[in-house]
Amino acid sequence: MNAVNVTTDMSIFSLITGASLPVQLVMLALLITSLFSWWYIFIKVVTIKRAETDAESFENAFWTGGDLNKLYEGITAGRRKPQGTAAIFEAGFKEYARNKQQSKIEISDVMEGARRAMRATYNREIDDLDAHLPFLASVGSVSPYVGLFGTVWGIMHAFLGLANTGQATLSQVAPGIAEALIATAIGLFAAIPAVIAYNRFASSVDRLSVRYESFMEEFTNILQRKS
Length: 227
Hints:
Blueprint: H1 2-9, H2 12-18, H3 21-62, H4 68-77, H5 85-100, H6 107-130, H7 133-162, H8 170-226
């Protein structure tokens, strides 16, 4: 009978509900943080995958050698707002065409205006891709320490509870230590996916950033020859 009671008391649910209030608050905060992390991970998977698909699709259309005016009209006539390389192309070509119509503007100024327009759009696109990544980085770096705080507090509370007992046995110490260690486990549960996702997404954003910058340089050269 005693063995059954020990097993029941050592269940995960019993350990969580039996933990002290500060430890329970730490666990709750970590679980909520983990849920937010998974939600942002799902958002970033969709966002980055769409950005890569859009870049591939637009570059295939761009490098077919068709008329740039028709390509621009096709982008602006679309229902969905252009993103990635399409947005950079739209901004650069729009500024180039607008300045080219003004006969008093030098070619160097026309090209500089197109570069600035593309650079501003590039910065906005990268900012959108970087959204939520700082949160994942913070979760990955802070969660283990938050869980460790809960563990330290729980162990301290367990030993303070044993201070008034004449003799401490394993059955008395084990539940307090086990419920405290759950906080560290939840902290790692929140941190590990966030770290993996952050590294993965940061690498993908870096590749897209290089891709966008390469397109800007190549498109600038095309506009320069066109001028």
